[in-house]
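Incident log, structure service

09:12 report received: a user says their structure output differs between two submissions of the same chain.
09:20 pulled the input from the user's history:
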Amino acid sequence: MERLKIGSVVLVLWAVFPGCGGGTKPDEDAGRDGGLDQRLDVKADVKTDVAVDVPMGIDVPGPTCTDRVLNGSETGVDCGGTCPACPVGSNCSVAGDCQTQMCSAGKCVGGSCADGIKNSAETDVDCGGGCPPCYQGKICLAYTDCVSYVCSAGVCSAPTCTDQVKNQGETDADCGGSACPKCADTKMCAANTDCTGGRCDMGRCTSCLDKIKNGDEVDVDCGGTLCGKCGDGKVCRAATDCLNARCVGGVCISCSDKLQNADESDVDCGGTTCAKCTDGKHCAAATDCAGNRCTVGTCTSCTDAKMNSDETDIDCGGAMCAACINGKRCTMANDCMSRICAANACVAANCTDTTLNGTESDVDCGGSDCKRCIVGAICRTGADCDTGVCAAGRCAAATCTDGVKNQGESDVDCGGSTTCPRCVDFKTCTAVTDCMTNACTMGYCGTTGCKAFGASATSGGYVGCEKTVPVAMVPCEDIRTTGTRTTISDDSYSTYTLPFTFNFFGMPRTSILISASGAMSFNTTNPSVTNYCVNTSYTSPTIAVFWEHFHPSTGGVYTQTFGVSPNRRYVVQWDSVVYSSGTTKVDVRAVLKEGRGDIEMCYVNTTSGSTTYDLGIGATSGIHSGTGTTGLQYSCNTASLVNGLVLTYTAP
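09:34 re-ran on a clean worker, output below:
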C-alpha cells in the first residue's frame, strides 16, 4: 500500500534586507518591500512526517519533482534532496539542497537576493530563479518562481480555483478548503466538507458513486450507514443493508431475484416473506399457495383446469371448490349445484324432487322457478309466498295490515270481498262497495276519477288519464330512504336491468336507461339537457316524466321494486334542483307496472324557486315509441305539471 505523508506546517518568514526593491529611493523602497515581506511573504511547507493509509482500491502515484507537493526526499516543494536544488530561503539539510550551495541553520542562504537589482538567475528584482519566490505581478518563468505557484503569461498571478495548483488552503488542486468547490472522489481531503460525496476516508474523498468499496460500505457503493441499500446478490452484513430487507448467508436476496432461496417453497414465492405461489408451483403447506391448497407438494386450486385434491370433477365439488353444474361427476348431493347426485352425476333440480335446490326457498317451492310457498314455509322475500307476505323468514297469512295487495283486495289492505276496510278516495276500486264514499269513478274511489288526455289516433293504443290529488295521497312511493340511490350525477345517465320484462308499445324491454334529466329511454341514447316535445316525430323510445335540465347531485335519483310477480312495480324518483333556477328541489316520480306495461307519474313538488322553470314551463311530460309520431304527450313547455298531479298511461 502506498503511503502519503501529510506533515506539520512550517511557516517561513523571509528576512527583510535593506534596500530591497530597487528604484530611485532605495530607503523608501526597502521600507515598503520590507513591510510587504512581513505582511505577505509567508508560505506553508508541508513536512512529510505523518503516514496515512490510502483507502483500498485508490491507486495513488509516487512522489515526483513536479507534483507541487512536499514529499519524497525533498526539503522544499519539488526541490532539494534528489530533486533540483532549492532557491534561497527554502528549507535545506545539506549544501547540495541549495542553488547557492550554502545551507545555514536549515535555510538556503547566499547570493544577491537583496541588492535591489535584477541579476543572476532572478526573474524579477531579488526574486525568482535562485531567490525567494515572487509575489503577484512580478515576472516569472516557472511556477516555482511564484509564491502562489501560479505563473501565467510570464507574470505571477493570484491563486484561483481553476489554476490547477494546490494553493490558498485547498486540500487538492483547485478543490476543497474554504475557498474552492468540493473535491471529487479520490481527491485529497481533510474533512467530509471537502468532498462532493460528503465523505473523507483516510485523507481521500470517497462516495456512494465511486465504484469502489470504501467507507463502511458492505459492497461496492451500497450498504452501511451512508449509502443506499444493496440489490440482490450483493454482499450484506444485516437485512438493513438490502433493498428487500433479506440478508441470507451474507448475500442480499428478494422475492424477485429469480432464485429459490431463504424459506421460499419455489422460485420467488411461498414461505413467510414472499407472495403465495400459483398453481403448479412447489409448496410445503397450504399457506404457500394462492389457492390455499398444497396437494402432494404442488399448489392446486379450483381454477387450475385440473381435477385434483378432493374435487369430484375438474375444479368443482369436494370440500374446497364450488358445487358442480349438471352433468359433472359427484359423490354426494353437496357436490352439485342442484343438490342432486344420481349415479355419480349431478342432475337438474325440479320442483317435485323433494329436495331443496335450485332457487327454491323451501323444498319444491319459492324462488324463481317453483310455485309459491304456503303459510309457514321458509321464504326469503314476499315473492316466495302465496300470500305475498314473508315475516321473520317464514311465509305468513294475509292480513289487512300487511302492506300487500292480496286476498282479493282492490288496493293495498282495503276493498274487495275481504273483511278489510273500504278504500279511501283515490285508491283503486272495481265496485262502489270497495270505497268508503260508495263512489268508484273510472277505477278510483271517489267522484273525481280521472280525465283522459292525448290523441288516441297516435297514442299507439295507450290511454292517458290525469287527476289531481292531495300530495300526501299520490300513489307513487317516496323511496329516498328505502330505495337505492343511483350513481347518476349532473348531466349523466346509467343503464339498469329491470326486475321484470316491461312491455312498452308492444315491445318487451329488460333494461332501461335512466337520465339525470328527468326522463328514461329504452335504447342507448341519453335524453339531452334540452327537452323536446314528443307529440311529433322522435327516434328514441322515451318516458319523459319531467324532462328538464336537472342537477341531481344535490339530491339524487333513486330506484326500488315493490310487490310480487305478476304485480311488481318499479319506482324511479328524481329529487333534484333545476339548473340555473332556485335551490328548491323538484320531486317527481314514475312507476313502471308489470303485466300490460302501464305507467304512472306523480308530481309531488314542481316549484323550483324560479318562476322561469316552475310547474314544467321548460319541461316535457309524455311517452313516445321512438317510431314516427306514435306517442302520447301530456305537456311540453307549459305550466301544467302542478303539485299533486297524477298521470296514468294505460297500455292496450
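09:41 both user submissions now match this output. Likely a transient worker issue. Closing.
09:42 reviewer note: The first strand starts at residue 3 and ends at 5. Helices lie at 26-40.
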